[in-house]
Design a protein that fits this description.
The protein is an alpha+beta fold. It has ten helices and ten strands.
Length: 355
């Protein structure tokens, strides 16, 4: 069971501040009798502990609590279960707060990318920094990347990967475009300049062109770009524009060609899954990239890509927070929980997704 998000596991670690804070919440006036009953129903319906990284057991829908949030016992006198069918059921449950409470709690963020593609992130409020939990405003010291510590750079890279993933999911990318150089060009800043000129030419030809671009270094050190794009584009026209940017002659070929373009298109009428594309691009934004270009730009994307729909709500400490998240995911996505992981920076939390 996940330690930073669960009361029961804090009890297994006596003498910790987390345990003391978890015990104090039981006496909080914010927890109503309906919430206590709903918490009992959640505890009684908890699924077995999931295997890390794999889909959790699906919640039963034999007993539905859609109006009052109170669990009811199914026929035969078996254990009552707390189940949601829609997001409205979740938000109307007495187990959930819509406004941030004063007592310790879990803050949960639901991001909806459309077509049943969703992700949930949960944090414990007693681990959150004041500016994250709505407390007294903390002045942030803005520093240049050259002045940032390794830990700060690691957090910055994690934010970049998250933002890149969200943009790929929202634009519903279905193709992978690769721009490469013939020469061994290693200056990343200069390569970004080439990409900017190429992008201007592409947008002049296709004003609705959407993209998310991530640079990668080959084994020889040369830079090339991977782009997640959506919809069919004439690869010959793209290749002409790329070569014209590099050498002024879009018709250059063979040994005179300064670079090339490849598109990995859907095969046999299928599609690249946008989640798969986002994971593919994420691996180029990891530690290896930071080691070589610590202060470089990590990705670029169209400014017209919308942000995902965000819903925030708050949950009192319960015995199995992960299982509650599976119930929520079952309500908002037909796929349920497909992936999940724990993280500890910048603060402990758990992330689950339907993709």
């Amino acid at each position: 069971m996940y330690y930073p998000l669960s009361d029961s596991t804090s009890a297994q670690n006596p003498g910790t501040p987390e345990r003391d804070k978890a015990e104090r919440v039981t006496a909080s006036s914010d927890v109503s009798p309906c919430q206590t009953e709903a918490k009992d129903a959640l505890a009684s319906s908890a699924a077995p502990e999931p295997i890390h990284g794999k889909a959790s057991p699906r919640a039963s829908t034999s007993v539905v609590n859609t109006e009052s949030g109170r669990s009811t016992a199914p026929a035969g006198g078996s254990t009552p279960r707390l189940v949601f069918r829609t997001l409205d059921d979740v938000l109307s449950s007495p187990l959930v707060w819509r406004k941030r409470p004063e007592s310790p709690h879990h803050e949960i963020a639901l991001r909806d990318f459309g077509d049943g593609v969703c992700e949930l992130t949960a944090f414990r409020s007693d681990y959150m920094r004041p500016r994250h939990r709505g407390g007294k405003k903390v002045d942030r010291v803005r520093r240049k990347r050259e002045e940032m510590s390794e830990a700060d750079l690691s957090r910055s890279n994690a934010r970049s990967k998250r933002n890149m993933r969200h943009r790929v999911l929202m634009m519903r990318a279905d193709r992978l475009l690769t721009l490469s150089y013939r020469e061994n060009k290693t200056d990343l800043k200069s390569c970004w300049g080439d990409f900017a000129r190429f992008l201007r030419a592409v947008l002049h030809m296709w004003p609705d062109f959407l993209y998310v671009a991530v640079p990668e270094r080959q084994g020889r050190g040369a830079v090339h770009f991977h782009l997640a794009i959506r919809g069919f584009r004439d690869v010959d026209k793209l290749r002409y524009l790329w070569r014209r940017v590099l050498c002024g002659d879009g018709d250059a070929s063979g040994e005179n060609s300064p670079g090339n373009i490849d598109i990995t298109s859907p095969r046999r009428g299928g599609q690249w899954q946008r989640a798969k594309l986002s994971r593919y691009l994420s691996k180029y934004m990891g530690k290896d990239f930071l080691d070589g270009d610590m202060h470089a730009r990590r990705f670029s994307s169209s400014r017209t890509i919308a942000a995902p729909k965000l819903t925030r709500f708050y949950l009192p400490f319960v015995d199995d927070t992960f299982y509650f998240l599976t119930l929520v995911m079952d309500a908002v996505s037909p796929a349920g929980v497909q992936r999940w992981y724990e993280f500890y920076e910048p603060m402990p939390g758990i992330w689950v997704s339907s993709y």
